[in-house]
Amino acid sequence: MSHTQSHAPWPVYKEVLTCNWPAALNTRTMAKITFFEEKNFEGRHYECSSDSAELQAHFTRCNSIRIESGCWMAYEKPNYSGYQYMLHKGEYPDYHHWGGFNDRIHSCRMVPSYQGNYKVKIFERSDFGGQAMELTEDCPDLRTCFHNGDIFSANVLEGYWIFHEHPNYSGQQYFLHPGEYRRFSEWGSSSPATGSLKRIIELK
């Protein structure tokens, strides 16, 4: 699937925005995620099979998650804001297993299924300026090969990506879909520092 520069950028999900996914993304495979208030899949729970901008009515805290199908983004705050967490099919017996900073999950989205190529172009300055580098594979330690890991802008040409704050896919996570990001704040980060980046590939 090709992307042209004339294609309007998709909405960026950050704390100050509440956006809807484009209509083109509404065709999805069936997915299911279950949130549990207690560790090890105990206590009050809630099953979800679609996007939800507000989960607080269904549970007050989240200490374990089970995903039967699909890939999901979970968010610390309502309206797809706050800390972001990429979740694949599987079991997460406590919030440390998904890299959580606390036991709060207040919104979630299903990541659309994707089969195709991956390509992202990163820049050392805002508005696509300065040194640039194109990646088509995962990079576990960006700081060794690109501008000490500082990414000030990015153009996601193909596929879905996660930028990680630290090397080896650790620290805060930022979800990027195809589109142009003229400054790091547009993917929800308060800093250009990026330790690693990874393609989102659905696990079967």
Task: Write a brief caption for the model.
By secondary structure, this protein is mainly β. It has no helices and 14 strands. Keywords: Eye lens protein, Repeat.
Can you walk through the features of this model?
It is a single chain. The chain is mostly beta strands and 204 residues long. The strands form four sheets. It has a four-stranded antiparallel beta sheet with strand order 2-1-3-6, with no helix packed on it. A four-stranded antiparallel beta sheet has the order 9-8-10-13, with no helix packed on it. The protein contains no helices and 14 strands.
Topology of this structure?
Blueprint: E1 32-38, E2 42-48, E3 64-69, E4 71-77, E5 81-87, E6 90-92, E7 107-111, E8 119-125, E9 129-135, E10 153-158, E11 161-166, E12 170-176, E13 179-181, E14 196-199
Antiparallel strand pairs: 1-2, 1-3, 3-6, 4-5, 4-7, 8-9, 8-10, 10-13, 11-12, 11-14
Attribute tags:
single chain, 204 residues, mainly beta, Gamma-B Crystallin, domain 1, 2 domains, four-stranded antiparallel sheet, 40% strand, disordered N terminus
Distance between the termini: 22 Å
Cross-sheet strand order for the largest sheet: 2-1-3-6
CATH fold name of the largest domain, please? Gamma-B Crystallin, domain 1
Question: What portion of the residues fall into strands of 2 or more residues?
Answer: 35-45%
- Weakly predicted, low-confidence segments: 1-28
- What is the H/E order? EEEEEEEEEEEEEE
Number of helices: 0
- Percent in helix: under 10%
Rg measurement, Å: 17 Å
Major sheet characteristics: 4 strands, antiparallel
CATH class of the largest domain, named Mainly Beta
The structural domain count equals 2
* CATH homology superfamily of the largest domain: Crystallins
Shape: elongated
What would you say the CATH architecture of the largest domain is?
Answer: Sandwich
Total beta-strand segments: 14
Q: Please, what is the average pLDDT?
A: 86
Structural class: mainly beta
Family: Belongs to the beta/gamma-crystallin family.
GO biological process, one term: lens development in camera-type eye
Domain Beta/gamma crystallin 'Greek key': 31-69, 70-112, 159-201
Keywords: Eye lens protein, Repeat
